[in-house]
Amino acid sequence: MNPLLEQFLSEARDFLHGIAEKLMQLENDPGSTPVMNELFRLVHTLKGNSGLFEFPEMTRVLHAGEDLLDAVRDGRVGYSQELTDRLLDAMDFVNLLVDEIESNDGAIGSDHAQNALRLAESLRQLIGVTAVEVKAPVAEASQASSVHNMPELPRLAELPEQQRMALYREALAGDTLLFVEYTPEQECFFKGEDPFHQARQIPDVVWQSVLPREPWSAPAELDAYHCNLVFNALTTAAPEELYELFRYTPEQLRIVPLPPIVLALPHGDPNGGPVYGDFVTDALGRLDTGDMAGLESVARTMLELSSPSLWLSSGLRWLLLVLELEPGNRYAQRTLIESLGSLTLPVWTTPETAVEADSELVGERFSEADARAFADILQAQREILGLPDSDAWLPGRLNAAATALAACQRSAGRIEALPTLEAALAEALDSVEAAPLLAWLDAHAPLDRSATAESEAEAAPMQVRNALIDVESDNKFGRRVEDSYVGPKTLKVDQDKIDNLMGLIGEMVVAKNSLPYLASRAETQYGVRELGREIKTQYAVINRIAEEMQDAIMQVRMMPVSFVFQRFPRLVRDTSRKLAKEVNLILEGENTEADKNIVEALADPLIHIVRNSLDHGIETPEVRRAAGKPPAGRLTIRATQEADRVYIEISDDGKGIDPTIIKRKAYEKGIIDESTMERLSDQEAVNLVFAAGFSTAEVISDLSGRGVGMDVVRSAVEKVNGTVSLESELGKGTLIRLSLPLSMAVTNVMIVESDKQIFGVPMDMVVETVRVSRSAIRTIKKRQTTVLRGRIVPLLALNELLAIDAEPYANEDDELATLVVRVHEEHVGIVVDDFRETVDIILKPMAGIIGGLGGYSGSALLGDGSVLMVLNPRELV
Amino acid sequence: MKRILVVDDAATVRLYHRNILEAAGYAVDEAVNGIEAMEKALQTPFDLYVVDINMPKLDGYGFLREIRSQEIAQPPAIMVSTEAESNDRHRAYRAGANIYLIKPVKPDGLLTYIRLLLAEERT
Amino acid sequence: MAITYQKKVALFQDAVGAEEAEGLLEWLLKNPKSQLNFADCRHLHAANLQVMMAVKPVIAVWPKDAKLRTWLESALK
After folding, report:
1. Could you give the C-alpha distances from B108 to A142, A709, B19, B29, C67, in angstroms and in order?
2. Whose CB has fewer CB within 10 Å in chain B, the N or C terminal residue?
3. What is the pLDDT of residue A872?
4. Which residues of C touch A224 (CB under 8 A)?
């Protein structure tokens, strides 16, 4: 056995071993990118190796495996157990082939073809393309050639001949013909883009087509919002216009300049026409001897004899036009004449054709293959030199291209061109751009038939400058974006700037608040009532503007809750996998917006709730089945907005919360006493999970935290002035509802007075203000209460809560000013000395030592410059 | 004797290329990835690189970009790939390849390009 | 509404937005023998275009807007 085959077999075994190992690793960790990449590389390399030999069965299966893994790597196909199984099957087959090659002296029996087809098909099924015929085995591929993926212009012939001829004239006169290929991003619809609209903006389109990027899936499975379109167009617009049009997505645009001759496509009725069999031979003979006048004359005669609607006539018209406009383009003329003989469309666009035109090089020095390779290399350097000049390694690339060009020239014996090449390289390196070398290439390299050239037009019109006009470069187009007169619709602004603006508006609100003081001073202190009134009028105006400004800046700070929601699919997947549970996550209302701070503050509580739900709520598939539920649990996270609040509901269809267990636990933990335990309703009991230090899990899992319960969620939500409530039905599921303000930047507070000090109370907690007659106060269980609207409301004196040594101050009618606030869904009356006005303030959290004081949510500056302490009744009572 | 550096992670492919190139009278050195290729190329000059794309540690694009960033003589590079995608060819050229060939490259085909790129007349 | 669904004909009017695509797809699947009328259509979002390319419905009337018509024909014919 030859050493190469031995090497192949031994390496193949290593690879197969590695592939199996990676597949196992992937099974345990399907999300691992490094494992996936390594797996892909192994299969890819093994496929490449097998292609060196005549093992089409092996290559076919490996190729399918590679394509499948590529799809998984790209996220087009999800990982599945099935996938591992099929790949393992396929690798077993390859292993079997390896064994057979070894024992069978380098050959594979013919009986494997069927299996190879079946396995490859089973792999491709997972990609979802079953109908696509497997590419020809690589071993059958023809000999080496560099690839030129020129665009296909399948239906150019559909354009009326007249239009094409006019276009051909224009293109020769200077209008470059550009082929545009626009491939929008697959997710672009979600970014609000409309690629069709964009494509329609392409100016001066003479031909267009819209094609699917991948074959269409069955209509019933079609994802309407996954963009699968590629737009092609042929245009005479200037490249600059196109760059301008696609300046935001240059990477989706490919522009290829086309030689005008591609328009020369005869059409018409292929049947009939005068019998003049020798025409082609005659014409070619005249072409070869340079008898252009004779050629034109026979062509014209021929045309006169033929009906104009014939394919032949159309071809002749083109030939005459090319003779007129491109008299030196022998290649085009020859191709047209030959196509008249064969009645097949001339193939203009593939550079391979162009390369054959180079055949004049062939001689003692060059074989046919050499000439083709020579042209290939030249073409490649042309493409390389046409790349953007922005890369840091440009000098190295230019040097290498020049070396390659020099070598080719030397091989072709054209040493006379070398000094100018050297000079061009020096100039290019000097100016750090490819242009001088490209100019040299244009002048020297294009099929140096010039030795026998009769006209300057000979300078190879067929040498398509198909250097892709590259649009990747940032430098090149960054400037254009900035200069652009059409401003972008979205601005990216540094968060600090917004915060700064926010702060300024806060100050403005505060400053504005000083005007009423000023007005009352004008009245009371200086006795100028008129001025006082005017100030008040002005205040109303400034107040309105300030409010609108606040509103506007709030809008800027709004962001969708999807910012938080987007992490849940992964979290739920990973967590449920760890817990061996099956969970379907449903996200709704992701576009609901709230202030950035609110959305950010939402993240931790939500994660906690979701984990709790997965951990304690949703049961394992076995338990669920036993309970008559579908094995997969459902977890829904829904955001909605109502008035000035955002509601987030997290619901599951898990086992719910058992109020009796909660009661018992709460009692055991000393959170409630025995009598409370008896008295509590189920709903109240369920809400005990929010009590500090409560955790229901029998065993503390490593997921929902160690002993950290729902009380953390509650305090986090309350920190941003939100509330949380919970409903649960045993065996059916749990619903947790968070209610949050849309924004937290400006707080409306009521100012109350107690013992000659003033305090703020957030208005969203205030239910009402009442004056309670002392006679209406009852003492129940040593606590003072009163009845308001048929409800017993406990009364607490603010002085007492703040440890102020003073009695509440009653008015003349012996009534106590009572602020009724909502604390954890309960109403509590806070007795103060008096109520004052409400104001908008920017709440600043307390810092330093006083930050540790309970009972306050922050402080704020008032219009008169004094500091207002804002109470937090939740912590206070 | 002209020296060629073959960069490929697959031993089979390296051996395949070595066989072809040595038979044609070239001196061949091998590297199993871009990093090793960098080390070798910076140590001794080569007249040509034959480079695979997909390799661990540093792939073919990375190797070419790195080597083209060096202030050394810049021999031509042949990039050999199984991908017929024009995007890959484009990337290869951008990284610093001078011609892009599709695997499997038949010995004759490969040698034709190499002879031209090394400025050797056909014998 | 930019698409009016009649018994067997979907009428495209003015500019048809992306949000119509899903409904269009459903309708085309439910009414496989239906026809589309673009006479008064000025533009349709690419999502709608690709739905039609995938389902290949019968076009009863092409748009009056010549440029739109050319684009549509290149995609749907």
Report:
1. 12, 73, 12, 20, 52
2. C
3. 85
4. 21-22, 24-25, 47, 50-51
Using the CB atoms, write b or e for A250-275: b if 16+ within 10 Å: bebbbbbbbbbbbbbbbbbeeeebee
| CATH class of residue range A156-263 | alpha beta
Is pLDDT at A704 greater than 50 in this prediction?
no
Sort out which chain C residues have CB atoms less than 8 A from A155's CB and list them.
74
Q: What is the pLDDT of residues A363-408, one digit of tens each?
A: 666 777 788 888 888 888 888 887 778 788 899 999 999 999 988 8
The mean-pLDDT minimum among A95-109, A343-357, A477-491, A811-825 falls in: A477-491
Across the interface, whether the CB atoms of C46 and A228 are under 8 A apart is answered no
Q: Please give the sequence-ordered ranges of beta strands (E in DSSP) within A604-691, or none if there are none.
A: 633-642, 645-652
Give start and end residues of each alpha helix (H) in A558-592.
562-565, 568-578
Domain A3-140 has CATH 1.20.120.160: yes
Selecting from 3.20.20.70, 3.40.50.2300, 1.10.10.60, 3.20.20.30, what CATH number does the domain B3-117 have?
3.40.50.2300
Chains that touch A (3 or more CB pairs under 8 A): B, C
Q: What region does A194 belong to: left with phi over 0, alpha with psi -120 to 50, or beta? A: beta
Per-residue pLDDT, A277: 63
**In this predicted model, which residue has the larger pLDDT, A296 or A271?**
A296
Report CA torsion sign: A519, A524, A526, A529: positive
* CA neighbor of A197 nearest in space, from B115, B61, C17: C17
Enter the CATH code of domain A561-741: 3.30.565.10
**Cis before B76? omega within 30:** no
Residue B55: how many CA atoms within 13 Å on its side-chain side? 29
- In chain B, the residue whose alpha carbon lies closest to the alpha carbon of A383 is B93
pLDDT category, A231, cuts 50, 70, 90? very high
Mutate to test the interface with B, among A1, A5, A6, A7 (most CBs of B within 10 A): A7
Nearest CA in chain B to A45: B10
Q: Which residues of A touch B15 (CB under 8 A)?
A: 3-4, 7
Please give the ipTM for the structure prediction: 0.97
Residue B93: its chain A contacts at CB < 8 A? 380, 383-384, 387
Q: Quick one: pLDDT at residue A707?
A: 38
Q: Which of B96, B106, B117 has its CB closest to that of A144?
A: B106
Q: Which fold has domain A746-876?
A: OB fold (Dihydrolipoamide Acetyltransferase, E2P) (2.40.50)
Fold of the domain built from segment(s) C3-76: Transcription Regulator spoIIAA (3.30.750)
CB contact under 8 A, A149 and B85: yes
Which chain C residues are within 8 Å of A199, Cβ to Cβ? 71
Optimal mutation site among B28, B74, B100, B110, interface A, most CBs of chain A within 10 A: B74
d(CA A10, CA A88): 19
**Residue A150 pLDDT > 60, yes or no?**
no
Model pLDDT for residues A640-660, shown as the tens digit of each residue: 988 778 899 999 999 888 888
Instruction: Supply the pLDDT for residue A389.
Output: 80
The pLDDT mean for chain C works out to 89
Query: Using beta carbons and an 8 Å cutoff, which residues of A are at the interface with C?
Result: 155, 184, 189, 194-197, 199-200, 208-210, 212, 216-217, 219-220, 222, 224-225, 227-229
Look at the alpha carbons of A447, A450, A452, A454 in this order and tell me if their dihedral is positive or negative.
positive
Q: What is the mean pLDDT of chain A?
A: 78
Bridge partners of residue A232, in order along the sequence: A181, A209
* Contact call for A225 and C47, based on CB within 8 A: yes
- Chain A residue nearest residue B70, CA to CA: A396
What letter does residue A671 receive in the DSSP assignment? S
* pLDDT at position A745: 59
At A611-630, the pLDDT tens digits run: 888 888 899 999 999 989 99
- The answer to whether C21 contacts chain A (CB < 8 Å) is yes
